[in-house]
Every structure is written in C-alpha cells, then in structure tokens.
Amino acid sequence: MASTVRSDAGGSVIGFAIVFVSFVFRSLIPAPTWVWLAILAVGVLLALKDGISGLDVVTLALTGFMIVGSLTSIADTATEAPDLTLKEPIPVPTGYGFRQEDSAVDSTRIYRSEPLPPVKRYNQAVAEANQAVAEVVDYYIAGLPPEWTIVDRTEKVGYGDGLNAQAKFRQGDTSNGIGIQVYADVWGLSDTTVVLMIDALNCGEDVPGFPAGEVCWQGPV
C-alpha cells in the first residue's frame, strides 16, 4: 500500500509540473498549438494514471484553462479579416493630371484626370477618352515590378460608348493584390475626363469572410 501511495503522489506531482511549466513558458517559447496540446496530454495522463487526487484536480483545471485559451485564440485568428489598406506599388501615370478625390475607406483611392483637350465631335471625344483609358491600363501592366502578375482583365463598353476597363494584379505568391478600374467620363466636347480607381485586394485562398474560390477580391468595406 505504501508503494502505491508513493507512486500516485509521484505521478500527480510530475503531471502537475509538466502542465504548470507549459502554462508558464508557452508565451515565451514559440511552438505550434498541437505541440503544447501533446505536452498537456502527457501531463494529464501521468497525473491520472493511478486515480485522481487533490493535486490532479488542480492539474485538470489548469489544463482546461489552457485549452480554452488556445481554442479562443485560434477562433480569433481564423475570423480576423486581412488588412486591406491600399499600398500603391507605383505612382499613377503622368500626363493626365490625375488628382486624388475623397474616399470613405482606406482600401480604395479614386483619381480623376484633368479635362482632355476639347474636340469638335462627340464621337471624337469618346474615341480619345477610350484611348486614354487603354493607355492607363497598359501603364500598369507594363510598369508594375516583375513579381506583380495580372490575374484578370476585362473591358466593356458603358454608357455613351465609353470604355470601362478593369484589371487585377497579384504580388508573387503573397495574398497582396491590387485592382484597377479605368473609365471615360464623357459629358461634352470639352469636359471629358478619365477616372482611375485603385483597390487593395486579398488574393488568399479560402479566407474566412471572403467568397471561397475567388482569386483576388476586395472584400467587405
């Protein structure tokens, strides 16, 4: 009987020591969550292998506290939305007099060009505005650093035959991306401008809060 009591006490003390040391040093020693859970499992098994004593209750309570904290931390990390603050990799193209307009969010910037030179016919105004739109898109395709790759490009004709062009770019294998939308704003023969919108994009896969399967998209704002 005496040897059994000593064995029980030894297992309880060792198990408690393992759990307590894990609790103290977990924040100081970076390791995957599964490693700490495995260490806790060893400590609990040693504490309970010969029955439950008063010290074992403390061990179980401390273990439960750590597991709940780990699960809460994982849940918080999983639901945290990516940072979509726009960081423009290159300046806007020169030659159009782009000026930044007000934007309600940090993930989007809107620029409007100075009025294009006046023309005599509406069709000519549209044609020159559409050419400017195409040149701005080509500027980003050619001017971005090599690690930026184009992942999507679309063009469509909008109201008044004005061109609306969009392109999405991803920075290497990271989740960083930008999207540009360029369109002609034709109001008259002497009041035609080009609008450039730049958005920060998330290019990660299956990020909580974002549609599954999307390559790059802006996300909630």
Which features characterize this protein?
221 residues, alpha+beta, 2 domains, six-stranded antiparallel β-sheet, 4 helices, 6 strands, rod-shaped, disordered N terminus
Strand order of the largest sheet: 1-2-6-5-4-3
Shape: rod-shaped
Q: Taking Cα atoms only, what radius of gyration do you get, to the nearest Å?
A: 30 Å
Structural class by secondary-structure content: alpha+beta
- Helical content stands at 25-40%
State mean pLDDT (0 to 100 scale): 77
Q: What is the count of β-strands? A: 6
Q: What's the domain count? A: 2
- Gap between N and C termini: 68 Å
> Secondary-structure element order, as H and E?
HHHEEHEEEE
The biggest sheet, with number of strands, parallel, antiparallel or mixed sense and barrel status, is:
6 strands, antiparallel
Strand content: 15-25%
| Low-pLDDT residue spans | 1-8, 75-80
- SS field, number of helical segments: 4
Provide an overview of this structure.
This protein has 221 residues and is an alpha+beta fold. The chain contains four helices and six strands; from the N terminus they run αααββαββββ. It has helices at residues 2-25, 33-48, 54-79, 122-143, and strands at residues 99-101, 108-112, 148-157, 163-171, 176-186, 192-202. A six-stranded antiparallel beta sheet has the order 1-2-6-5-4-3, covered by helices on one side. The protein is rod-shaped and about 100 Å long. The termini are far apart.
